[in-house]
Amino acid sequence: MAREHLGDTIDIHAGGQDLTFPHHENEIAQSESYTGKTFAKYWMHNGYINIDNEKMSKSLGNFVLVHEIIQKIDPQVIRFFMLSVHYRHPINFSEELIDSAKSGLERIRTAYANVLHRLDATTNLGEPSEEYIQKIDNIKNQFEREMDDDFNTANAISAMFELARTANTYLNEANTNERVLRAFIETFDTFGQVLGVQLVVEEELLDEEIDALIQERNEARRNRDFKRADEIRDQLLSMNIILEDTRQGTRWKRGS
């Protein structure tokens, strides 16, 4: 399948640490002996997920299914939580850590919203602060260094928190400047896009808007436009709308 869809050599191959041997080593042996080319340029093996400090397993009955958990927890919070640990390290799933991730994401979102609000109201009373422009550039560089260091999202999030703290400090200044505020916004947006974290909380969709999107998704599926169908499902999921495809049609409900 990899050769058919991606060619003889792929850029990134990912999987759990338990697949390194023998599964991935066998993939290399089989593919490279057949093609004579490097099978994958980079390998990313993620750590295990533990539940309350115990390895998640069916035998212990402590496993959690994604479609169940997103009914209780905002998927964006789950994403932020998982980004807070380097992907090669084990991650411990607990209610306490999820609450901490939720609070952290809310702090960043609040700082972002406050800068947006000030930008809408600013009258450019202050001169552009080169000090803050430099601070923002330093935080950008920190973020890029961490992401370049084997996708160290945990430290990249630290840079995001530093950006929020710096923005809050700037907002306490007597006079603010549009150029500086826009530099904060652009940097927040860049970080959010790289990490896939939404900084603006979407307004709750009306029932008829949800039904219209589901109808568009069904039409896309009939036309075999699966990319668009998946985009709509992901859009609804990001707004805490959970779809269930049944023989009687698509049902939906709001996550709690």
Provide an overview of this structure.
This protein is of the alpha/beta class. The chain is built from ten helices and seven strands. The strands form three sheets. A three-stranded mixed sheet has the order 4-3-5. The protein has a two-stranded parallel sheet with strand order 1-2. Helix 6 runs antiparallel to helix 7. The two termini are 38 Å apart.
Distance between the termini: 38 Å
Number of helical segments with 4 or more residues = 10
Strand line-up of the largest beta sheet: 4-3-5
Low-confidence stretches: none
Radius of gyration, whole Å: 22 Å
Mean pLDDT, all residues: 90
What does the overall shape look like?
A: globular
Annotation, overall tally of beta strands: 7
| Helix vs. strand class | alpha/beta
Relative strand content? 5-15%
**Helix content range of the residues, please?**
55-70%
Largest beta-sheet details: 3 strands, mixed
H/E series, N to C? Answer: HEHEEEHHEHHHHHHEE
Give a quick precis of the structure.
The protein has 256 residues and is α/β, with parallel strands linked by helices. It has ten helices and seven strands. The protein starts with a helix and ends with a strand.
Can you tag this structure with a few keywords?
256 residues, alpha/beta, three-stranded mixed beta sheet, 10 helices, 7 strands, globular
Q: What layout of secondary structure does this protein have?
A:
Blueprint: H1 2-6, E1 10-16, H2 20-35, E2 40-46, E3 49-51, E4 54-55, H3 66-69, H4 75-83, E5 91-93, H5 95-121, H6 130-148, H7 153-171, H8 178-195, H9 207-222, H10 226-238, E6 241-246, E7 249-254
Parallel strand pairs: 1-2, 3-5
Antiparallel strand pairs: 3-4, 6-7
